[in-house]
User: Fold this.
Amino acid sequence: MALQTIKIPDEIKRLPHKPVATRLIRLARERIDAFMAGNDSVTENFVTCDFYLLDQSLTWIEQNHLLTGRRFCELGSGFGVAALLAGLRGMESVGIEIESNLVQQACDLADAVDLPTEFYCGSFVPRGVSGILELGRDVEHVETHEGEVYEEIGLEMDDFDLFFAFPWPGEHPFFEAVFEAGAAVNSLLLTYRGRDGMDLVRKL
Ligand SMILES: C[S@@+](CC[C@H](N)C(=O)[O-])C[C@H]1O[C@@H](n2cnc3c(N)ncnc32)[C@H](O)[C@@H]1O
Assistant:
């Protein structure tokens, strides 16, 4: 098995946003800022990606017909903005987050924008990824233990067509290994890489 890199052109930054996506991002930003300001015990692993670039990446993926289906999963979903942006596009989307207070925030945001996107509390690492202990050895910002969350969702990892994650610097190999081990052939993993923008791979 291998991952094929799909280059996302810089020009995507000129793609327009639908007003409904802009409204969602603004509302999320307000809520995230208030949450961070009012919460001393905010999880230190929670930082947010560039939601506008994420929306443009989703537009580009759709415009180029790269999807094999309409199921979307955000791995480590925080406030759930990626899953909600996918939900706005009519995708069947879920988010998985280990911190229950963030799951609650994502559910509240889904209610506020009237989307059926579901958020689940647990680890996105599925059972049976071989070598997971070794893979997780140098990973500091991801909970590397396995969980049962896919049972609760009622879908396996290989039922999804597109995953999104925002790994901390240097920790993307862990997400790619989990994706390669559990996702379906031809599914996609989009990751935000800070200053390096978005990275897209397909499982071959
Ligand atoms: C860098 S934040 C990204 C949040 C969101 N995806 C975004 O881009 O705005 C990573 C999130 O992953 C969560 N996380 C870490 N390990 C996890 C695991 N094994 N399963 C689910 N969530 C996890 C953290 O609590 C944190 O909220």
